[in-house]
Amino acid sequence: MKVKTAKTAGFCFGVKRAVDRVYELIEEGVSPIYTLGPIIHNEEVVSDLEKKGVSVIQEEDIPGIRKGTVVIRSHGVGREVYEKLKAAGLSFVDVTCPFVLKIHRIVERESRAGKQIIIFGDPDHPEVKGICGWCEGSCTVLRSREETENFVPDPDKIPCVVSQTTFNYNKFKELVEILCKKRYDNNVLNIDNILNTICN
Questions:
Q1: pLDDT tens, 32-49?
Q2: Who contacts 104 (Cβ-Cβ below 8 Å, separation ≥6)?
Q3: Topology alike, domains 13-96 and 99-193
Q4: Hey, CA dihedral for 160, 163, 169, 175, is it positive or negative?
Q5: Residue 176 near residue 198, CB atoms below 8 Å
Q6: pLDDT digit string, tens, across residues 121-155
Q7: Which CATH architecture best describes the domain 99-193?
Q8: pTM recorded for the entire structure
Q9: How far apart are CA 11 and CA 33, in angstroms?
Q10: Known catalytic residues?
Q11: Residue ranges of the domains in the chain?
Q12: Please, what CATH class does the domain formed by 13-96 belong to?
């Protein structure tokens, strides 16, 4: 059997950047180091980092940590997590993927402008939870055809649509098509309101 390595095999840009930074902190002698959730969905890497003294924690663990450096992974987090880290007096290294940060800035700006934020993605995914955490007020997460068909738009708000960076592009197009058929009264849902934030 012949095994070939795909040309694009390996970590994406954001994840590679995050993983490399944790290894750099280890080499710099920073201790203790915590990652807010596994730095990557790869058991071998997480296990190797644990052997080197890096611990995985969750948001609810923050108040109980007295010292150390917390790494915010590429998925990003909501605004309130930064506030918890500061309140606990912990230093942190933010390696949120720049493409995810861009979505944070979009939803923060557009929700402050009074727009209805719609996110295509998995509501249980840490990236989507982080995006929601930058919205002023509520937002709506849709991940399926059925949810999008049942979604009732706010007729008084202009919509702003973004997507989880790893959302399936064909599914994104399908849900946009369904959303565009809904009535928005005077607030037209057009191409300017739909932002394809899926990572290439």
A1: 999 999 999 889 999 999
A2: 76, 96, 130, 131, 134
A3: no
A4: negative
A5: no
A6: 999 999 999 999 999 988 999 999 999 999 988 87
A7: 3-Layer(aba) Sandwich (3.40)
A8: 0.89
A9: 22
A10: 127
A11: 13-96, 99-193
A12: alpha beta
